[in-house]
Amino acid sequence: MLPYLPEVAFQRDSMGGAVESLDRRILKLISDGESYDEAASVLHMERSSIDDAMARVRLSLKALTDEHAVALAIRSGLID
After folding, report:
1. CA nearest 66: which of 40, 43, 35?
2. CATH classification for the domain delimited by 17-76, as one of 1.10.10.10, 3.40.50.720, 1.10.60.30, 3.40.190.10
3. Share of the chain above pLDDT 90, in %
4. CA proximity to 79, closest of 14, 10, 2, 3
5. Taking a C-beta distance cutoff of 8 angstroms, is the pair 23, 53 a contact?
6. Alpha helices (runs of H) in 1-80, residue ranges in sequence order
7. Using one digit for the tens of pLDDT, what is the confidence trace for 42-66?
8. Are the C-beta atoms of 27 and 79 separated by less than 8 Å?
9. What distance in Å separates the CA atoms of residue 18 and residue 25, rounded to the nearest whole number?
10. Which residues contact 80 (CB under 8 A, 6 or more apart)?
11. Rounded CA gap, 16 and 66, in Å?
């Protein structure tokens, strides 16, 4: 059985893909070991926005944890 590939989780939205790009960037920062606070600082965002984005990513990828989301995203090529 092939592993779950979550490409559909990052399809473009009505804003032309801004959410897709931002979610991937946040996920990449988290995968690089940045905390939510550090990611918020780098992206000049509120911490709550990072919380919301990661919750959305976990839900979309059907991941149980941030680490699980990172692993799924790397395996499927969403991030490197």
Report:
1. 35
2. 1.10.10.10
3. 66
4. 10
5. yes
6. 18-31, 36-43, 47-61, 66-76
7. 999 999 999 999 999 999 999 999 9
8. yes
9. 11
10. 74
11. 26
